[in-house]
Amino acid sequence: MIHAISRPSPVDIAELRKNQPRFAGMESGHGACQGCGQALAARLVLEAAGPDVIVANATGCLEIFTTPWPQSAWAVPWIHSLFENVAAVAAGIEVALRAQKRETRVLAFAGDGGTFDIGFQALSGMLERNHDVLFVCFDNEAYMNTGIQRSGSTPHGAWTNTSPAGRVRMGKRHFKKDLLAIIAAHGIPYAATASVAYPSDLRTKVRRALETEGPSFLLLHSPCPLGWGHDSALTIAVDRLAVETGLFPVLEMERGHVIETMKIRKVRPVKDYVELQMRFRHLLADSPEAREELEHLQALADANIERYGLLSDSPDPRDSEGSDSVRRGGMRWG
Ligand SMILES: Cc1ncc(C[n+]2csc(CCOP(=O)(O)OP(=O)(O)O)c2C)c(N)n1
Ligand code: SF4
Ligand SMILES: [Mg+2]
């Protein structure tokens, strides 16, 4: 249930730890759309992070749907920042906690717009200054809260209101920004990608990030039924396909080196992913332009599989078809 804003006391936290192995840091009853991947993703991150955290949250869907004044769905201390400065706010909190010798962990939450584009400067500074903060980007691949505009994360060929599909163009002309390569260039201790379709892998990565001293970064693929135009009951299936096609590689990095990748046992064609989403509908038209764009998207997925060695050479229950764990890869980034 959504409730009035309150801070858990130390006694509450002890009780929560004892009684709730799956801590609900974000309660139900908020105003997200049905099947919102970001709502599920935030809940899973906090389940793993536990109650002793402070969350700084950039402007975006997550902030809006959880805090219709005077209510809040957050059961942890939470602060709303500007769109562009969540990393700076989180860094300030971290420094204050350090000065007080407190163990509380700091999380910065932002959408892809607030990470890839408008909040990037503050994020880069936070990483470079080595703040002990976990930055989580809820990547729904567009500026959703303001009505589905393309961001630096929007995939090639996807329709948005500012990358329309029609006679002149086939959705977004540019490629999804390779943000992880940029994060890798900062040489931070830990960075990873994860998908809401693989919750235990996601929880493990959150815990690893929080155990790491220094800055960590998590790129969390979070389908948006409204902006992607998929059936809200298919959020998990859609995100699983993002991984199984190779379009969204799931991996872990230490100091810029890829150390683990989630293997794909049976690679699915990009068409299977595209077919479920209205944002790619134009790519299925019976025209040479549509076929060419679909081939581009397939080539991008194939390139990811090649680059990160995502193909599984032997059956493994922990790959993308089995449970949702990861397998050690041992590659170098780039
Ligand atoms: C400086 C600034 N520019 C624009 C906006 C308007 N705005 C608020 S939320 C939002 C979209 C957020 O997109 P994203 O970060 O991807 O989060 P999402 O809503 O998709 O979860 C925009 C453009 C703003 N609040 N501040
Ligand atoms: S618009 Fe998308 S991200 Fe925003 S609440 Fe709805 S489903 Fe979630
Ligand atoms: Mg977004």
Provide a short characterization of the protein structure:
The chain has 334 residues and is α/β, with parallel strands linked by helices. Helices cover 35% and strands 15% of the residues. Residues 111-113, 140, 142-144 line the site of magnesium ion (MG).
Structural descriptors:
334 residues, alpha/beta, globular, binds iron/sulfur cluster, binds magnesium ion
Task: Tell me what you see in this structure.
With 334 residues, the chain is an alpha/beta fold. It has one domain (3-328): 3-Layer(aba) Sandwich (Rossmann fold). Helices cover 35% and strands 15% of the residues. It has 12 helices and 11 strands. α2 (37-49) crosses α8 (199-211) and α4 packs parallel to α6 (120-128). It is globular, with a radius of gyration of 19 Å. The termini are far apart.
